Amino acid sequence: MKIHHRFFSPRFEKSAALLIAHPHLSIAEIASMTGFSSQRYFSTSFKGWKGISPSEYREKMQSE
After folding, report:
1. Other C-beta atoms lying within 10 Å of the C-beta of residue 15
2. Distance in angstroms between the alpha carbons of the first and the last residue of the chain
3. CA distance 22 to 44
4. What's the CATH code, domain 11-63?
5. Domain ranges of the chain
6. Measured between alpha carbons, how far is 4 from 23 in angstroms, rounded to an integer?
7. Which residues of 34-61 are buried (b: 16+ CB within 10 A; e: fewer)?
8. How far is CA 14 from CA 5, 10, 21, 47, 53, in A?
9. CB atoms within 10 A of CB 3
10. φ, ψ at 37 (rounded to 5°)
11. Rounded CA separation 2/20 (Å)
12. pLDDT digits over 11-63, tens only?
């Protein structure tokens, strides 16, 4: 795990939970709620953490 992923891990875990629990929230809203400065930075960082984008993660989890 990259060092910055370790630092952001609690925020990523919270954002992953929000993506699943609140499908009506936009990615930008979730990024803001979890303390990321922009949707782009959040999406790039999330993809580095999970290997897929936040929207792909949401779709995958909803289909399971």
Report:
1. 25
2. 26
3. 20
4. 1.10.10.60
5. 11-63
6. 27
7. bebeebeebbebbeebbeeebeebbeee
8. 13, 6, 10, 15, 15
9. 7
10. -75, -25
11. 25
12. 899 999 999 999 999 999 999 999 999 999 999 999 998 999 999 999 999 99
Q: Which ranges in the chain belong to alpha helices (H)?
A: 3-21, 27-33, 39-50, 54-63
Whether the predicted model's global pTM rises above the 0.85 cut? no
Indicate the residue type of 61. Answer: M
- 41/60 Cα distance (integer angstroms): 21
* Integer Cα distance of 64 and 45 in angstroms: 24
Structure tokens at 34: 């979890």
DSSP letter string, 4-17 = HHHHHHHHHHHHHH
Sequence letter at residue 45: S
